[in-house]
Amino acid sequence: MIILPENIYVILFDGDCLLCHACVQKIIQNDTSKKFYFAALNSEFGDQIRSQLSIYEQDYNSIILYLPNYTYHIKAQAVAEIAKHLKAPYSWLRFTRLLPNSIANWIYDYVARNRYQWFGKSNSCYLPKEDERHRFLD
Model confidence at 66, in pLDDT bands (50, 70, 90)? Predict the structure, then answer.
């Protein structure tokens, strides 16, 4: 069982998605509290978290925000929760919580289904900068 310190939030993302890589970079740049850590959904760490949360879906179209105390958010709710910890203008995405979950997740799913076509797919792993490496979990 993976137990996180209270000040650590883990974002599980699609490691092959160029849009996801760009979002991770924006989060790192705008996370003033340095609370977000990252792992690919299909990494060993990602598999352990998904197993612990009983999320066995092999579809990697979803972002998962794993919080201390075994709570988590997925899809649009994860985006809104992440956004509230970032600097503006990215923090404004937190207002997507005002939409009904069904609508917010429909928009999220639409982008997720088309992300490779619109933004591309990575053929190699993202290599974080030296001062960012400790924030990426295997």
Answer: very high
Nearest to 13 by CA among 52, 56, 45, 53: 45
Angstrom distance (rounded) from CA 95 to CA 17:
25
134 neighbors 39 (Cβ within 8 angstroms): no
Query: What mean pLDDT, rounded, does the chain reach?
Result: 87
> In this structure, which amino acid lies at residue 35?
K
Please report, rounded to a whole number, the percentage of residues in the chain having pLDDT higher than 90: 51
d(Cα 34, Cα 51) in Å, to the nearest integer? 26
CA distances for 70 relative to 53, 83, 107, angstroms: 7, 20, 26
- DSSP code for 95: G
Residue 82 φ then ψ, to 5°? -65, -45
d(CA 69, CA 118): 36
Euclidean distance between CA atoms 12 and 106, whole angstroms: 20
pTM for the full predicted model: 0.89
